[in-house]
Amino acid sequence: MSQKLSGRVAPVTGATLGIGRATAIALGAAGAKVVFSGRRDAEGEKTAKLIRETLIPPLKQVH
């Protein structure tokens, strides 16, 4: 897994579904600490889980 963004913080809005979720996961996989927001709590939890599965935990989940 690439760590090109290691040490960087990546804010992502609309990360509970679709392109926002895919972006958050890709940024996490690239080593960034992901701070994301979205309108759906349950979907936000799923996004956080998917980011954790890339071995890079999100910095903070914003509701």
Write a structural description:
The protein has helices at residues 18-29, 41-52; strands at residues 9-12, 33-37, 60-62. It has a three-stranded parallel sheet, covered by helices on one side. The relative contact order is 0.25. The chain is 38% helix and 19% strand. It contains two helices and three strands, in the order E-H-E-H-E. It has one domain (9-62). Helix 1 runs parallel beside helix 2. The chain is of the alpha/beta class.
Stretches where pLDDT is under 50 for at least 5 consecutive residues are none
Order of helices and strands: EHEHE
The secondary-structure class comes to alpha/beta
Binned strand content: 15-25%
- Give the strand tally: 3
Largest sheet: 3 strands, parallel
Radius of gyration: 10 Å
How many helical elements?
A: 2
In spatial order, strands of the major sheet run 1-2-3
- Can you give the helix content as a percent range? 25-40%
> What count of domains describes the coordinates?
1
**CA-based shape:** globular
> What is the straight-line distance between the termini?
29 Å
- pLDDT average, as an integer? 86
